[in-house]
From TrEMBL:
The active site is at 101 (tele-amp-histidine intermediate). Coiled coil: none annotated. It holds the Pfam family HIT. This is Histidine triad nucleotide-binding protein.
Length: 114
């Protein structure tokens, strides 16, 4: 996994990203190397390294991330045809960036993983 600072800097607007939604808790922006016509990343504004770092205190962020991801899917008009939400956790899942992030993918037929 590479360092977490890229996403931290996106939240702090120190490096540019195509931000499509932000509020007090989360930021959503386009993936720099999209794997589908719609590929958005949704991240918490506070640093959480991975799903393994979800705890009693911060767990509500996940519901909010899902809620906003679904709203974005509707706005992007991919909700009817379908989409996928993915969270990679650590190396066996291919988590490259050590900063919790949710992928929203859609706009084409996605290959079946499971
Ligand atoms: P993961 O493999 O789950 O850790 O996904 C990390 C994702 O972050 C990849 O899909 C990358 O293309 C994406 N990514 C890396 N750097 C940037 C960046 N500066 N702006 C937007 N997306 C990025």
């Amino acid at each position: 996994m590479s360092n977490s600072s890229i996403f931290k800097q996106i939240v702090e607007k120190k490096i540019s990203a195509n931000i499509i939604y932000e509020d007090k808790k989360i930021t959503a922006f386009e993936d720099i190397k999209p794997k589908a016509p719609v590929h958005i990343l949704i991240i918490p504004n506070i640093f959480i390294a991975s799903l393994n770092d979800i705890n009693k205190k911060n767990k509500d962020i996940l519901g909010h991330m899902f809620y906003i991801a679904v709203n974005i899917a509707k706005e992007k008009k991919i909700s009817k045809e379908g989409y996928r939400i993915v969270v990679n956790c650590n190396k066996n899942a291919g988590q490259e960036i050590e900063y919790l992030h949710m992928h929203l993918l859609g706009g084409k037929k996605l290959s079946v993983l499971l």
